[in-house]
């Protein structure tokens, strides 16, 4: 079966918040059977989350975005500053 990949950038975290939450985020993605890569892009101040799963057709990207949103909100504590999610072209 074909695979689909989606990258989501999350703006608004501090480096410390990302460092503390990254192990939990990686574990949560694995629990949901999503192949993932999570990294902090220091140059842009963004958390980048790339997930890959079976391609389920046109709604796959939306499903990936929902999963990333759920995992990030559950696993990364933030100071109350606004965070913003954005899909990044793959």
Average pLDDT value? 90
Q: Going across the major beta sheet, what is the strand order? A: 2-3-1-4
The count of strands amounts to 4
**Approximately what portion of the residues adopt beta-strand conformation?**
25-35%
Provide the structure class. Answer: alpha+beta
Order of helices and strands: EHEEHE
Biggest pleated-sheet summary = 4 strands, antiparallel
Helix content: 25-40%
Kindly provide the radius of gyration, computed on alpha-carbon positions and rounded to a whole number of angstroms: 13 Å
Q: Which stretches are poorly predicted, pLDDT < 50 over at least 5 residues?
A: none
Question: What characteristic shape results from the CA principal axes?
Answer: globular
Quote the distance from N terminus to C terminus.
19 Å
> What is the number of helices?
2
Quick summary:
By secondary structure, the chain is α+β, with helices and mostly antiparallel strands.
């Amino acid at each position: 079966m074909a695979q689909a990949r989606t990258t989501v950038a999350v703006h608004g975290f501090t480096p410390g918040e990302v460092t503390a939450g990254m192990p939990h985020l990686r574990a949560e993605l694995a629990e949901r059977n999503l192949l993932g890569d999570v990294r902090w892009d220091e140059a842009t101040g963004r958390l980048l989350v790339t997930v890959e799963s079976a391609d389920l057709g046109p709604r796959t990207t939306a499903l990936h975005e929902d999963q990333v949103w759920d995992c990030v909100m559950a696993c990364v504590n933030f100071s109350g500053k606004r965070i913003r999610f954005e899909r990044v072209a793959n």
